[in-house]
Design goal:
Elements lengths: L1 H19 L6 E10 L8 H13 L5 H7 L5 H10 L5 E11 L2 E5 L3 E2 L1 H10 L4 E5 L5 E2 L2 H7 L2 H5 L6 H16 L1
Parallel strand pairs: 3-5, 4-6
Antiparallel strand pairs: 1-2, 2-3
Length: 178
C-alpha cells in the first residue's frame, strides 16, 4: 500500500510542476471521489474476529481451513471485515486527469480491474489514454461482486458498483481536459 500511495503522490507533485510551466499547454483536473465502503459483511464482525484470533493462535497454514469452517472465503476476508467495521459510509480517493500533447492520463492510488481500464479507454475522447493506478486496495467491478465474489471483492474496501462510478467520473474528467 505504501508504494501505491507514494506513486500517486509523485504523480501529483510532477503534475503540479508541469502545470506551472505555461509552455506545456497542460490541462488538468483533480477531485476527491467518495466511494461507498462495503459494509455488507458487518453482521459477521464477531465471527471475523473469532476466525482471526484463532488464526493468530495456531500455525498459519490452517488459517483458510478455519475460515471455511466459519463460512468465510479466507482469513484475509475476516481481516478485511474487521478493518472495514466502524468505517464511515464512504472512503475518499483522489483522482486526477490531464492532457499532454493530445494524450490523456487518469490516475488514482487504488488497484482497478482491467475491465474498468478498458472501459475508460473505450470511452475516452483521446486516441491514446494511460491509466496510472497504485496498489492501495482493490476496486473490483460489479461483475466481480455479482458473479464471482472473489478475493478482491471480499478483501477490498469498496462496495459493489464503485468501480463503475469511478469509470464514469474519470471519463468525465478526460472530457474536461480534452
Amino acid at each position: 500500500p505504501d508504494y501505491g500511495k507514494k506513486l500517486g503522490q509523485e504523480a501529483v507533485a510532477a503534475l503540479a510542476k508541469l502545470e506551472k510551466a505555461p509552455s506545456t499547454g497542460l490541462k488538468a483536473e483533480r477531485m476527491v471521489f467518495a466511494g461507498e465502503v462495503d459494509h455488507s459483511w458487518d453482521d459477521r464482525i464477531s465471527q471475523a474476529r473469532e476466525v482471526y484470533d484463532l488464526w493468530k493462535s495456531t500455525d498459519k497454514p490452517t488459517g483458510d481451513e478455519l475460515a471455511h469452517t466459519y463460512n468465510m472465503s479466507s482469513v484475509y476476508q475476516a481481516r478485511a471485515i474487521i478493518s472495514r467495521y466502524g468505517m464511515e459510509a464512504t472512503r475518499n480517493l483522489t483522482i486526477g486527469a490531464f492532457n499532454v500533447g493530445g494524450i490523456g492520463f487518469v490516475s488514482h492510488t487504488y488497484e482497478q480491474f482491467s475491465t474498468s481500464g478498458l472501459q475508460i479507454k473505450e470511452q475516452s475522447p483521446f486516441d491514446t489514454t494511460f491509466i496510472v493506478s497504485g496498489n492501495s486496495g482493490y476496486i473490483p467491478s460489479l461483475e466481480n461482486f455479482e458473479n464471482y465474489r472473489s478475493y478482491e471483492a471480499d478483501t477490498g474496501y469498496f462496495a459493489a458498483g464503485v468501480a463503475e462510478k469511478l469509470v464514469a467520473e474519470m471519463v468525465g474528467m478526460l472530457n474536461k481536459v480534452k
